[in-house]
């Protein structure tokens, strides 16, 4: 009985999400991401959408992230053969699509595919048969869905140029209504040149800096890492759990927010909040709200 009700709710959500998916972007840019970065409260980010329950990087997961009142919905994007940016996390499409059966391809990357090929893929049924038929959204389609009604995106660049990313943000008039992040710090430097006003966040740790491989200790977010990030003109850092109170305090003293990924445990979230992080990136935003409420 509970399962049937749950499935009905999910179907309703998928319907609403599909509707949202086709909605035109009607809101003028209001700099909402700038305002969020200025606020003092904890920021909750739905990682790849509400990816614990719905297929990551698809509109149903984005919709659920918004429904769970995440401050931002995170997504990842890659460029394809035709220069279109599509939402995907992994380097290849095998884990989260049916590319092997639909296109008879294995280990293909986004760059190998045309728009038409990407449109043929099912990005939902791997997660659960109830999501069969869920398409891969382009970055543009994802932003239209997420940014509607005051929503906010944390868009993680995987591949594609700063110019290609900036073109989408400018077209949809959402500069500073969302945040762009990347592990590729050269891309972040390019973003500053192409679209200087756009807020960016640096993802870490890096594996190397200027060709020098970092040791495990050097991957902890410390003064050196923060000073490197400051050169990029970013507004914050998004780091894994290799954080210390001193590193966070130093980042704060330089005006940077610190986000941590990917936290799916209440106790761990509470420990990180006590350490001073400003935002938590999670596959389950409801869990983080509970961690905040019960800390
Ligand atoms: O948002 C941070 C997180 O997404 C970084 O890791 O592997 O999911 O891109 P990854």
Q: H/E element string?
A: HHEHEEHHHEHEHEEEHEHEHEH
Q: Characterize the largest beta sheet: strand count, sense, and whether it forms a barrel.
A: 8 strands, parallel, barrel
The CATH superfamily bears the name Phosphatidylinositol (PI) phosphodiesterase
Structural class: alpha/beta
CATH class: Alpha Beta
CATH structural fold name: TIM Barrel
Task: Tell me about this structure.
Helix 1 crosses helix 3, helix 7 (162-171) packs across helix 8 and helix 11 (266-275) crosses helix 12 (285-294). The protein has twelve helices and eleven strands. It has an eight-stranded parallel barrel, surrounded by seven helices. The protein is globular and about 50 Å long. The protein has helices at 2-21, 32-38, 59-67, 99-102, 115-120, 139-147, 162-171, 185-194, 223-230, 245-253, 266-275, 285-294; strands at residues 43-46, 72-79, 85-87, 153-157, 179-182, 200-203, 208-209, 212-213, 236-239, 257-260, 279-282. It is α/β, with parallel strands linked by helices and 295 residues long. Helices cover 38% and strands 15% of the residues. Mean pLDDT is 93; it is low at 1-13 and 15-26. The chain has one domain (33-294): Phosphatidylinositol (PI) phosphodiesterase (TIM Barrel, Alpha-Beta Barrel), CATH 3.20.20.190. The structure holds SN-glycerol-3-phosphate. The site of SN-glycerol-3-phosphate (G3P) has 10 residues, from strand 2.
């Amino acid at each position: 009985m509970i399962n049937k009700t749950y499935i009905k709710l999910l179907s309703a959500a998928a319907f609403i999400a599909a509707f949202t998916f086709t909605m035109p972007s009607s809101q003028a840019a209001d700099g909402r991401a700038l305002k969020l970065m200025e606020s003092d409260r904890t920021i909750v980010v739905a990682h790849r959408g509400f990816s614990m329950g719905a297929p990551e990087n698809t509109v149903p997961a984005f919709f659920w992230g918004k429904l769970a009142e995440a401050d931002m919905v995170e997504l990842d994007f890659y460029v394809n053969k035709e220069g279109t940016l599509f939402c995907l996390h992994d380097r290849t499409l095998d884990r989260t699509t049916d590319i092997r059966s639909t296109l008879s391809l294995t280990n293909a990357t986004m760059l190998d595919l045309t728009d038409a090929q990407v449109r043929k893929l099912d990005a939902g049924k791997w997660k659960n048969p109830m999501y069969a038929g869920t398409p891969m959204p382009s970055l543009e389609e994802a932003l239209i869905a997420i940014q509607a009604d005051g929503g906010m995106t944390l868009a993680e660049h995987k591949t594609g140029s700063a110019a290609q990313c900036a073109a989408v943000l400018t077209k949809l008039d959402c500069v500073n209504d969302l945040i762009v992040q990347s592990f590729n710090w050269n891309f972040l430097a390019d973003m500053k040149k192409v679209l200087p006003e756009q807020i960016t966040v640096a993802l870490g740790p890096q594996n190397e800096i200027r060709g020098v491989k970092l040791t495990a200790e050097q991957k902890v977010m410390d003064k050196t890492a923060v000073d490197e990030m400051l050169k990029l003109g970013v507004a914050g850092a998004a780091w894994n759990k290799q954080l210390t109170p001193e590193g966070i305090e130093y980042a704060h003293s330089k005006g940077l927010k610190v986000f941590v990924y990917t936290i799916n445990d209440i106790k761990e979230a509470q420990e990180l909040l006590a350490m001073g992080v400003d935002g938590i990136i999670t596959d389950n935003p409801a869990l983080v709200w509970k961690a905040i409420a019960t800390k």
